[in-house]
Design brief:
Blueprint: E1 2-4, H1 14-26, E2 29-36, E3 39-46, E4 49-55, E5 60-65, H2 68-73, H3 77-95, H4 99-112, H5 116-126, H6 131-141, H7 150-157, H8 170-192, H9 196-216, H10 221-239, H11 245-259, H12 273-276, H13 284-300, H14 305-318, H15 326-346, H16 349-358, H17 366-383, H18 386-400, H19 403-412, H20 414-427, H21 434-447, H22 450-460, H23 463-473, H24 478-496, H25 498-514, H26 518-532, E6 545-548, H27 558-571, H28 578-584, H29 589-599, H30 606-624, H31 636-645, E7 649-653, H32 659-666, E8 674-676, H33 689-698, E9 705-709, H34 712-721, E10 724-728, E11 739-741, H35 749-756
Parallel strand pairs: 6-7, 6-9, 7-8, 9-10, 10-11
Antiparallel strand pairs: 1-5, 2-3, 3-4, 4-5
Helix pairs in contact: 1-3, 5-6, 6-7, 6-8, 7-9, 8-9, 8-10, 9-10, 9-11, 13-14, 13-15, 14-15, 14-16, 15-16, 15-17, 16-17, 17-18, 18-19, 18-20, 19-20, 20-21, 21-22, 22-23, 24-25, 24-26, 27-30, 29-30
The protein binds 6-O-phosphono-beta-D-glucopyranose and magnesium ion (MG).
Length: 757
């Protein structure tokens, strides 16, 4: 017989392999010699057989046995067993080139010949130090002996009290994990060497043990999950090998046993045991048992209902099972949206389609149903079911305006894709539903319906959409496109005036330049301007500058002015009130003093008045001595910066003779184009002088200027100067202002201009 040595399994069926493996296990005493390059003699004494093998450079080996079976059929279990052992020998010698490895091999050979009792006593003698150490050695060598007892080893390592309660702590958990990791390493190696039954023995013990631990000592579940994942992976790989029926049966029993336990859970991201063995659950009886188990769990296991229900659905399709159980039906119906997602995630597309067809879809809430249909569409595409693809993508694009589904529909069923566009167009007027608009624009764009595309775009009037699609239109519909843009730009200018319109339109201008439409649009705008000139009377002036009062607008010094007056008037025998604050706010120093003296009937000479005014200033200067930029009112600095950014001019218009000093302390002096303070105006607010002068300094018409004031007197002064006025503070006191806000942090320059226009 002649075989490829490293692929022996594919030459023989499972039953023959199993027989040969049994013989390998029985063969304890043998000699494998190499009389010359490429020739091997295999002589086994117990049982007695003799095989000659010739190894060719192409990887094939021919084997000849002396037995009668071989003489008759040109193959026999002896020859096969010898080949398996030769392969093992070659693999080992390849792996063990170094001296120490060679020694290990010898040790392996020695150990292989021992019984478990001998091995145990050997280890007890030579590895006395620690039982964990002994267990580690056992884990490494146990597979070499006949009938290794992994269960025993694992139980030995798991401390238990006399009532059978597992006593695991951090320390011995580490040992248990080490032992299991060693065993799993061995299992991986054995699987590589195609020692399937040996691999299974290790997995059976470790899986049992790991699940026992994770149920009994759930606090360590997390740590043990690393080993459990590995064990499950190896188990799945094992089930992909051509396992002998007997081994398949054992794997089935193991999987059913573990899965059926109370407290058994699916580990996230791993393949459930029952799905690993699914390919060889062939008999009616086993299928029945497996299905029943899954059904029971799907109904009762409240924690992991979804994975079980998913398996149930899968087996219903795969094995054509029907269940009459009402509770199961209820669970499946309830979980169906999630089951579909799960199946779809796992790539089980046939199951997705089957499941979708098995439920009454119109009983689900709209968003859930959408997800279900999307999963179905994905599955239908994967399985190449064109009819279903067309049906689902039609439903999704029509009922949910799903653009991705529409794209798919266009690929599969042109006619229906067009029909969807026609229906959606009829149903949704432009601009009434963003999603419908998007679907239509995308649809007409994809199908080259440019007239429809442009018509909808101009009806919606959203320039960002127009910019997205105009590339398609700029050759065929250039003039119309220029018209749409020009009309929009014209309307924006009319509505907002210069600064804001420029801001709003800046990206459109950039875009028009990039697609070479600016010249055409500019031309159209000129024409529109000409046409509309002279028609509508005087236009509202464009805002070009802001003038700010200082105390109480930019910085919180108004309170210091008031407190200083309070102190001075106290010395003069009067107790001033909040009400007086309204009268002194915004008024000049002398004006304020006159008012207070008058109010409290205090008579002073001019000389005395000047003395007390100077005294008030001293108190005030002392109070503001330590102010810094941190004392700027909230939002003030940002507002000044934004004003400049918006292209406006800035001036200060304060009644205070201390204004420049305060600006310096606040480090904002440089931010103003002009500074007008108490030294610049003879008249006190509400006289407009200070603001008229500020407008002159900015070279602006008062109608182009907005004044920001915290004092009623200031607002009156601004309005008297012909400026706009924004009042900051008490709405009652400032009611004459055009706009009232609580502080500069509540607005932006653009917003103010927008409100005023
Ligand atoms: C205004 C204050 O800004 O300046 C008033 O609102 C104050 O309260 C006025 O009287 C004059 O200030 P100064 O610093 O010149 O005394
Ligand atoms: Mg003020």
């Amino acid at each position: 017989m002649k075989v490829v040595l490293f692929d022996i399994e594919s030459h023989f069926n499972a039953a023959v392999m199993e027989e040969a493996m049994d013989l390998v296990r029985e063969t304890n005493e043998y000699d494998l010699t190499q009389p010359e390059e490429g020739f091997f003699h295999f002589i086994s004494r117990q049982p007695d057989y003799h095989v000659e093998m010739a190894f060719k450079a192409d990887g094939t080996v021919s084997a000849k046995c002396q037995c009668t079976a071989f003489k008759r059929t040109k193959q026999c279990k002896h020859a096969l067993a010898a080949l398996l052992m030769l392969r093992d020998h070659i693999l080992r010698s390849r792996r063990t080139k170094s001296k120490s490895k060679h020694e290990n091999l010898l040790l392996d050979d020695v150990l292989k010949k021992m019984t478990v009792t001998e091995l145990r006593s050997f280890i007890s003698i030579h590895a006395q130090s620690h039982s964990a150490f002994r267990a580690e050695i056992l884990a490494n060598y146990l597979h070499l002996i006949k009938k290794p007892d992994y269960h025993h080893l694992l139980l030995d390592m798991t401390p238990m009290d006399k009532f059978g309660t597992i006593k695991l702590n951090r320390n011995n958990l580490k040992t248990v994990r080490n032992i299991i990791a060693t065993l799993l390493r061995q299992a991986q190696q054995l699987l590589k060497e195609k020692a399937l039954s040996e691999t299974f023995q290790i997995l059976e013990a470790t899986l049992h043990h790991l699940y026992r631990l994770s149920i009994k000592v759930p606090q360590f579940q997390e740590q043990l999950s690393t080993e459990l994942r590995l064990a499950l992976r190896i188990f799945d790989a094992l089930c992909h090998q051509s396992m002998a029926p007997r081994l398949q049966q054992s794997a089935f029993v193991l999987s059913m046993d573990i899965s059926g336990r109370e407290g058994y859970t699916f580990l996230k991201g791993t393949k459930p045991l029952l799905l690993s063995i699914e390919p060889f659950i062939l008999e009616e009886k086993s299928r029945h048992a497996a299905f029943q188990l899954a059904e029971k769990k799907a109904v009762l296991d409240s924690r992991q209902q979804l994975p079980w229900a998913t398996i149930v659905m899968r087996w219903m399709r795969l094995w054509k099972v029907r269940s009459t159980s009402k509770p199961l039906k209820a669970v499946l119906n309830r979980l169906m949206p999630d089951i579909l997602q799960e199946l779809s995630r796992q790539g089980d597309y046939e199951d997705v389609i089957y499941s979708l067809q098995s439920v009454q879809t119109d009983t689900y809430e709209k968003t859930l149903l959408r997800g279900m249909l999307q999963a179905g569409l994905r599955a239908a595409r994967q399985t190449g079911d064109r009819e279903l693809v067309s049906k689902l993508s039609y439903e999704l694009s029509l009922s949910y305006l799903d653009t991705d589904a529409w794209d798919i529909l266009l690929e599969t069923d042109h006619e229906s894709a067009h029909r969807v566009l026609r229906v959606v167009k009829e149903y949704y007027a432009p601009g009434t539903d963003d999603i419908a608009d998007q679907l239509l624009l995308r649809g007409w764009n994809a199908t080259g319906h440019k007239d429809e595309l442009l018509e909808r775009l101009s009806a919606i009037g959203d320039m960002s959409l127009l910019m997205r699609y105009d590339d398609q239109l700029k050759t065929s519909h250039r003039l119309q496109l220029e018209d749409v843009y020009a009309t929009h730009i014209y309307a924006t200018r009319e509505a907002y005036g210069g600064v804001i319109a420029r801001q709003k339109l800046s990206n459109i201008f950039g875009h028009l330049k990039s697609i070479d439409l600016s010249a055409g649009v500019a031309e159209k705008l000129k024409l529109m301007d000409k046409k509309n000139k002279g028609g509508t009377g005087p236009q509202a002036a464009e805002i070009r500058g802001f003038v700010f009062d200082l105390d109480g607008v930019i910085v919180d010094t108004a309170v210091h002015h008031f407190q200083s007056w309070k102190k001075i008037l106290k010395e003069l025998g009067a107790d001033i009130t909040e009400e007086d604050d309204h009268h002194t706010r915004g008024a000049s120093r002398m004006e304020s003093l006159e008012y207070l003296l008058n109010r409290y009937s205090i008579v002073l000479t001019q000389e005395e008045k000047e003395m007390w005014a100077a005294k008030k200033n001293e108190v005030y200067l002392e109070a503001i001595e330590l102010i810094t930029p941190r004392d700027l009112l909230p939002g003030a600095l940002a507002f000044l910066i934004d004003t400049r950014k918006a292209g406006l001019k800035l001036a200060l218009g304060s009644a205070s003779k201390n204004a420049r000093g305060v600006l310096k302390k606040l480090a904002i002096e440089e931010r103003f184009d002009a500074i007008l303070d108490g030294n610049d105006a003879k008249e006190s607010k509400p006289h407009p002088e200070i603001f008229t002068k500020a407008c002159e300094a900015l070279k602006l018409d008062p109608a182009e200027v907005v004044v920001f004031e915290d004092a009623a007197k200031g607002v009156q002064a601004a309005l008297a100067a012909g400026c706009h006025a924004v009042g900051l503070g008490d709405p009652e006191a400032l009611k004459e202002a055009d706009i009232i806000i609580s502080g500069l942090d509540q607005t932006t320059p653009t917003l103010i201009i927008e409100q005023l226009s």
